[in-house]
Design goal:
Number of helices: 6
Structural class: mainly alpha
Helix content: over 70%
Low-confidence stretches: 1-17
Largest sheet: none
Order of helices and strands: HHHHHH
Number of domains: 1
Shape: globular
Length: 193
């Protein structure tokens, strides 16, 4: 079996098959989610606590912006860490969306498939963020905070909304192109209408 690029559409015939081909397709679908969750598990250790990340990040910031940045470093470091939460879990949600999008190939309509995949991706993000914060509450130099879970979930919702709008825009342009050319739109385009 040849390896195909990891895009949304290449799994149609493979996910429904049985045996090793189906297992390989499922691994290609869900392995990126596992990889992202593994990164969160590693970052959740005491080595990535604020007390360990502050000094290296401050040296980089001082090299870029000068030593005047040290006056406000605690606030800047806090913003960097919270932005990392927002962006990291937003990316995790997008990877989860990809997995659910591929899994729900048989959905009745494209819109139903999108909404289901976005909802489950956001739920998965909330659950992983909650587990991460619970784990951090047991690490000596870390603290588990529900506000971080909410921030992570907001990152998932924000990126999910952007992805949803982009997908709707692309689908609208595709339909407009088919209508302008006078061709009959494929079934997947009609189902999305």
């Amino acid at each position: 079996m040849s390896s195909s690029p990891m895009v949304f559409g290449v799994y149609a015939s493979q996910t429904s098959s049985r045996g090793s081909a189906g297992l390989q397709a499922q691994l290609r679908t869900w392995l990126p989610v596992l990889a992202c969750a593994s990164v969160f598990a590693i970052e959740s250790t005491s080595y990535f606590g604020a007390d360990h990340t502050s000094a290296p990040l401050q040296r980089v910031a001082e090299a870029i912006c000068g030593y005047d940045i040290s006056v406000h470093w605690n606030l800047i470091h806090h913003i960097i860490r919270k932005t990392g939460h927002f962006m990291g879990y937003g990316l995790f949600s997008a990877v989860c969306f990809r997995g659910f999008w591929i899994t729900f190939l048989g959905a009745a309509s494209r819109l139903q498939r999108q909404l289901r995949a976005h909802g489950l991706a956001t739920l998965a993000t909330f659950l992983v963020a909650s587990a991460d914060e619970i784990h951090q509450s047991f690490v000596p130099n870390r603290s588990g905070q529900f506000s971080d879970v909410l921030l992570d979930t907001c990152g998932a919702v924000a990126l999910g909304l952007v992805l949803f709008l982009v997908m709707q825009l692309v689908e609208g342009r595709r339909r407009a192109r088919f209508n302008a050319s006078g061709r009959i739109a494929p079934a997947c385009v009609k189902a999305a209408a």
